[in-house]
Amino acid sequence: MGLSLGTISISLATNIIVTGLTAGRLRWGGRQTAAILGPHHLDKYTRATSVIAVPHSLRD
After folding, report:
1. What range does the domain containing 47 cover?
2. Is the pLDDT confidence value at 59 over 60?
């Protein structure tokens, strides 16, 4: 029993939308951090979110 084209399309579209929203939220948070604390803290924020986000995206 295979998946239909519609099911695959909806799954793909959902994954693309959620990935884009997540990336946008991380970028927005980084910009807010840089605006409030300065660019030095942006590097620390980027590293911290990378440590959290990357392993979760690879755990499939």
Report:
1. 26-55
2. no
